[in-house]
Amino acid sequence: MLDVRTAARLMRDLDDRIPGAIERLKALYAHTGRAFIIGITGNPGAGKSTVVDGLIDFYRKAQKRVGVVAVDPTSPFSGGAILGDRIRMQRHATDDGVFIRSLATRGHMGGLSRSTADVVAVLDAMGFDVVLVETVGVGQDEVAIVSQAHTAVVVTVPGLGDEIQAIKAGILEIADVLVVNKCDREGADRTVRDLVGMLELRPAGAPDVEIVRMVASRGEGISELAAAIDRHHTRMVGSADELARERRRVEAQLRELLQERLVSAAERALLAQGGLSALAQAVAERRTDPYTAADEVAAAVLR
Ligand SMILES: Nc1nc2c(ncn2[C@@H]2O[C@H](COP(=O)(O)OP(=O)(O)OP(=O)(O)O)[C@@H](O)[C@H]2O)c(=O)[nH]1
Ligand SMILES: [Mg+2]
User: Fold this and answer.
1) Average pLDDT, stretch 5-28?
2) What residues line ligand 1, using a CB cutoff of 6 Å?
């Protein structure tokens, strides 16, 4: 098992794209696949970090070791909550059964899901039983990350106006468990009703999605949420759905890695042919056409 110091260094090296870090990650891969990965997404400020904090507590009391990845905690909506997240989860900082890692979107353009997958793999290899991944459900990347978890939890709150509009399209579809947080506010019943209505619109045979009411800031509903997560996980284990989901997860990862490699191979091939602007110049002067030019670069990549 990977010790904390080595793991922390590996995560940093992966972040900095240090050569050799990927080699170490490759060696770890055989030791992954044991952690239970729970994705938490939802509206900015919905209380995701507060829910995560409550779940850390719950799983620690059940003697489980918990890893946390907070992706892009500096949402523009709540104005730089990295510090807030740290403080909120601070009470777990001295617990060596908990490891919290923040990943900012900045500097990870397009590679966010890869960076997240890398960190999750390291936490998995470190032997954490549960890995919680928090993302703000605003971008496609973030939604994709959570849809790759074993169980995806979507957090929403009452009083967003038109509730149905407030949940971005695509987010509801990935929910295995729905949380209506801040039930100490007005309108919780209506939100729950709206969600039930939306779930009923799904085609017959769609999987069960439980709705859990919470006041996360008071710890209310945490054990109910953990039970709903556990029921979903139990239904999934060993099922055809579980295999399909794992395949989709690996497919997405492979596609991203292939794209990365092909793009850099194409850039190298272009450079060898004098660069993109030289090629463009040749096309502009009608010395060649764009199709032939692209084919020649592609042929060089394949050689
Ligand atoms: N009234 C009420 N406030 C809550 C509840 N849960 C969380 N909050 C508060 O809502 C605010 C946002 O909570 P966070 O947990 O940071 O929300 P988040 O979804 O992680 O926020 P971002 O990561 O910035 O999108 C904080 O001030 C919390 O104290 C709740 O059940 N009721
Ligand atoms: Mg947060």
Assistant:
1) 90
2) 44-50, 73, 75, 78, 81, 84, 136, 181-182, 184-185, 215-217
Q: Say what the pLDDT of residue 113 is.
A: 76
What is the DSSP-derived secondary structure letter of residue 107? Answer: T
Q: Which amino acid is at 191?
A: T
> How far is the C-alpha of 45 from the C-alpha of 174, rounded, in Å?
19
**Which residue owns the Cα nearest ligand 1 atom 32?**
182
3-state secondary structure of 194: helix
Q: Could you tell me the CA-to-CA distances from 237 to 46, 196, 245 in Å, in that order? A: 29, 25, 11
Q: What is the largest CA-CA distance in the chain?
A: 71
Give per-residue pLDDT as tens, 128-154: 999 999 988 766 677 777 777 999 999
**Alpha-carbon distances, residue 149 vs 16, 50, 224 (angstroms):** 25, 19, 20
Structure tokens at 222: 């945490």
Which residue has 């139990």 as its token pair? 234
The rounded distance, in Å, linking the Cα atoms of 213 and 273 is 61
- What are residue 156's DSSP bridge partners? 180
